[in-house]
Specification:
This protein is an alpha+beta fold and 145 residues long. It has a domain of 94 residues: Immunoglobulin-like, CATH 2.60.40. The chain contains two helices and eight strands. A hairpin with a 5-residue loop joins strand 4 and strand 5. The radius of gyration is 27 Å and the shape is elongated. The N and C termini lie far apart (91 Å).
Length: 145
């Protein structure tokens, strides 16, 4: 290495020595203090006070509860997944009156309680569908009085 290359090498190392701590300090300063809360999602996901209708499918490990703000108006579908589904990528769809896949409702991936807002008062049924295998996992038709 000649004198010119040694000088250039020294300058680059000095620049790296100055710039790198500045970048690290700025990165540390720009870290948010608290995570941002998604208030819209938590408000939608909140359990409605009145249980209007209940439908069990214990063979498949599912419970369906229809909830609302009052006893006459259904506005939320609550799905309780008691045992895991056999497919990892399961999505929930409305079931049309001609037993076809309708509007997308939401996704389910592990046991627990899932709450979804409903647009229609009476849901004919639901279809749990595996998007990867393009296969119907569970089809449930509700009986209304």
């Amino acid at each position: 290495m000649n004198a010119r290359l040694r000088k250039r090498h020294l300058i680059f190392w000095i620049l790296i020595l100055i710039i790198l701590p500045i970048i690290m300090i700025r990165a540390k300063i720009n870290i948010p203090q608290q995570p941002i809360e998604n208030k819209t999602y938590s408000k939608i996901n909140e359990q409605k006070p009145f249980l209007i209708k209940e439908s069990n499918d214990l063979k498949n490990g599912l419970k369906f509860n229809f909830r609302g703000e009052n006893k006459n108006q259904i506005s939320q579908l609550e799905v309780i997944l008691i045992k895991p589904l056999k497919d990892a990528s399961s999505t929930l769809f409305e079931l049309n009156y001609n037993d076809e896949k309708g509007t997308f409702i939401g996704e389910m991936n592990e046991t627990g309680v899932y709450r979804f807002p409903l647009k229609e008062q009476r849901l004919y049924g639901v279809l749990i569908f595996d998007e990867i295998k393009k296969d119907v996992v569970i089809k449930k038709v509700f009986q209304w009085d």
